[in-house]
Structure prediction request, 79 residues.
Amino acid sequence: IGGLSKAFLAGVTPSSLVETFSVGVPIPELVFVAFQMTFACITAALVLGGVAERVKFSTVLVFAVLWPVLVYYPMAHMV
Prediction:
């Protein structure tokens, strides 16, 4: 189901590869990390765009940190 072997990008190098759903088509792990992080940033930005100028900036910062950690990362890990 997954583990913590790659926590904090341990063992992820520019030359390390990860398998895809297509058999025999690996991609660099850093490309996969960048792709996933893009979606994590975009999801928070979409929600924050809907409440722009309606909440305090400190609330926006807290939400921008908590949303990916509590919602996006666990859901992405489950898939």
